[in-house]
Amino acid sequence: MIPGALPSDNAIGIVAGTLTTIAFVPQLYRIVSTRSAHDISWWMFGIMTVGATLWLVWGLATNAVPVIAANVVTLALLALILVLKWRYGRDAAGPGG
Amino acid sequence: MIPGALPSDNAIGIVAGTLTTIAFVPQLYRIVSTRSAHDISWWMFGIMTVGATLWLVWGLATNAVPVIAANVVTLALLALILVLKWRYGRDAAGPGG
Asked: Crossing angle, helix A42-62 and helix B24-34, to 10 degrees?
């Protein structure tokens, strides 16, 4: 917990972290259901992965519990999206294409 | 600045915030250059916008400067992506379609 943070601050942080984390779930669902990730940017999700890793380091260094919790789950979801981008992100090709 | 945070912690937070913020730039660029946002999830970017707004509130409440700075810019980029999703995210249609 951040020194000086109020319990209400932590509640806001936990809700914020939950939202910016679960936000990736519908994107995952969309890629799986459409089997298409062509419009997804490698760079966006790659840079986001490096950034989330550093937020995790920052959260651990400052004991910011919501930041730590959010970024552990975010990193797992980003990894799945990157795998699916690799799987479904290529240019569309017909059967045999 | 978070009480008890070291200058090196703030440096990590600033780099982390910069990365998770600029990550949205290549996604914006991809949507603009391909004029397609079909694979982008409304839900992801909508939930992300609500979450970033709450992170901003949390950052202001706890004086977490990197969190404040990152989320102000992130919200602007998310707004642009949502506009472009609205513009280019519909099902593909040929000329006149």
From this structure: 170
> Taking the CB of residue A40, how many other CB atoms lie within 10 A of it?
23
The predicted model scores a pTM of 0.83
Structure tokens at A24: 């990736």
What's the ipTM?
Answer: 0.82
Give Cβ neighbours of residue A24 (< 8 Å, ≥ 6 apart).
A74, A77, A78, A81, B44
Instruction: Kindly report the backbone phi and psi dihedral angles of residue B64, in degrees, each rounded to the nearest multiple of 5, phi listed first.
Output: -90, 90
B5-17 confidence digits (pLDDT tens):
677 877 898 899 8
Q: Do B62 and A4 touch (CB under 8 A)?
A: yes
Looking at the complex, report in whole angstroms how far the Cα of residue B31 sits from the nearest Cα belonging to chain A: 7
Q: Is A5 on the interface with B (CB under 8 A)?
A: yes
Residue type for position A31: I
d(CA B54, CA A50): 22
Cβ–Cβ < 8 Å for A30, A60: no
